[in-house]
Design brief:
Elements lengths: L1 H9 L10 H8 L5 H55 L3 H14 L7 H17 L3 H14 L4 H13 L3 H14 L4 H37 L9 E5 L6 E5 L2
Antiparallel strand pairs: 1-2
Keywords: Repeat, TPR repeat
InterPro entries: TPR-like_helical_dom_sf (IPR011990), TPR_2 (IPR013105), TPR_domain_protein (IPR052769), TPR_rpt (IPR019734)
Pfam families: TPR_1, TPR_2
């Protein structure tokens, strides 16, 4: 409005009397009028009030989110406890369903990491009881992703690996337990017990692989009236390398 008023004065009648020099000085001094000051003050107050309202609204929304997360956490924990009760009574399928539900309900926030890792580990033991060892391994792995030092999850995964004759993997988990607890006797005994089994399995796998290679070689050499039995490998005791000789 002030700009519009000044523009009007600028284009007033040329015959109008010119304002005095004091008037010109006052008009160009740059002092704001009473109306200017009032407008600026009211605008600032309104901005402050709006900002305060937005901050209060933001805090209120944050409180609502925190309250919902806390309720979800408590509900998930109650469901987990019900799963524990069912597991204790031998109802493994039902207990597994409760742990899965607890994981679905648990909010994705730092304070629920422990609860979620426990539910995964408990799901794993249910799977083992039901003979689902592959699923048990997967659940233990999820628990360890949330809590890498969770020894129960390492132990249960090692047990599941052993059931599937994954002896190397079971030994690796037991070694991790020893890293966390060097005095763990169970891990020491398991490593000693599984060591020979792992070696036996490695040798068996080697024999199976050699047998397959022999079959493949015989199928190719048979076209020329030969077989892999015509070739003999001799190990050098000094270097450990092999030399192959042809025999008729």
């Amino acid at each position: 409005m002030l700009i519009e008023e000044k523009e009007t004065e600028k284009h007033s009648d040329l015959n109008s009397p010119k304002p005095s020099s004091s008037t010109n000085r006052n008009a160009s001094d740059g002092f704001e009028t009473a109306s200017d000051g009032e407008l600026g003050s009211n605008g600032s107050e309104n901005d402050d009030e709006t900002q305060q309202q937005e901050e209060q609204q933001s805090l209120s929304q944050a409180d609502d989110v925190a309250l919902k997360q806390q309720k979800a956490f408590e509900q998930a924990n109650d469901v987990k406890m019900e799963g524990n009760r069912l597991f204790g009574s031998g109802q493994y399928e039902e207990a597994l369903s409760q742990y899965e539900l607890a994981l679905h309900l648990a909010p994705d926030m730092p304070s629920s990491v422990e609860l979620r890792s426990i539910c995964h580990a408990n799901s794993a033991i249910c799977c083992s009881k039901l003979g689902k060892y592959e699923d048990a391994i997967k659940e233990c792995t999820k628990a360890l992703e949330l809590n890498p030092s969770y020894m129960k999850a390492l132990l249960r995964r090692a047990e599941a690996h052993e059931k599937l004759e994954h002896f190397e993997e079971a030994i690796a988990d037991m070694k991790k337990i020893l890293e966390l607890d060097p005095s763990n006797d169970q891990a020491k005994r398991t490593i000693r017990r599984l060591g020979p089994l792992a070696e036996e399995k490695r040798e068996k796998m080697k024999e199976e692989m050699i047998g397959k290679l022999k079959d493949m070689g015989n199928s190719l050499l048979g076209r020329f009236g030969m077989s892999v039995d015509n070739f003999k490998s001799v190990k050098d005791p000094n270097t450990g390398s092999y030399s192959i000789s042809f025999q008729r």
